[in-house]
Amino acid sequence: MRLSKVSRILATLAAAAMATLGLTAVQAAPASAAVRNVCYTTSQAGPFASYAVQAAAIWNNYTNNINMAQCGSNLVISYTTGGGSYAQRTSLGNGRVVIDTIQAQQYSPLRIMTHEIGHILGLPDNYNGNCAILMSGGSAGTSCTNPYPSSAEAARVDTNFGFAPLSATGAEVFTGSWPAPATTPAQH
Ligand SMILES: [Zn+2]
């Protein structure tokens, strides 16, 4: 059977299924899965609320399958002083991000925020020291202020929220991404 014919049959079946559901094919079928909202709240974010908004905008700009908005408390942004920034993912797109105010004076607060949200979106750490990689976290040093995911990281998030997650995206706590910077120069 020619592929074009298969496509026609599939289109007919899809139309029939939609008719059964009472839907009409007003919009063209999207190439990817439906966009999923990731609702976050800054009600506990204190001085980091604006960074959360910026980080959400970055993730929205770099991905196709998610839309971060202040529409609920699936993701709670909060902060602490000491003990380290971390992300506590309860499931994909759900959990809590905690920003350490001390680390935010050493590292870029926006990079910390975008990185920790990356965990909520299903990304693991990748401590390779490369500033172009968002999930390299503190391994790229305090001078690295890049808050943007690489194309591969963004694509992985899209895949996580698409049909088949690439990685384990269930409950997990991510700590230790932002080690205290060395107080003395490295010895050669
Ligand atoms: Zn991390």
UniProtKB/TrEMBL annotation:
Pfam family name, one: Peptidase_M7
Catalysed reaction, written as an equation: Hydrolyzes proteins with a preference for Tyr or Phe in the P1' position. Has no action on amino-acid p-nitroanilides
The signal peptide, as residue positions, is: 1-28
Keywords from UniProt, A to Z, are: Hydrolase, Metal-binding, Metalloprotease, Protease, Signal
Query: A Gene Ontology molecular-function term?
Result: metallopeptidase activity
Keyword field contains Hydrolase: yes
SUPFAM superfamilies according to UniProt: Metalloproteases ('zincins'), catalytic domain
Q: Does the keyword Signal apply?
A: yes
What are the EC numbers?
3.4.24.77
Q: Which domain of life is it from?
A: Bacteria
**Stated family:** Belongs to the peptidase M7 family.
Give the protein's recorded name: Extracellular small neutral protease
Look up and give the organism this protein is from.
Answer: Micromonospora rubida
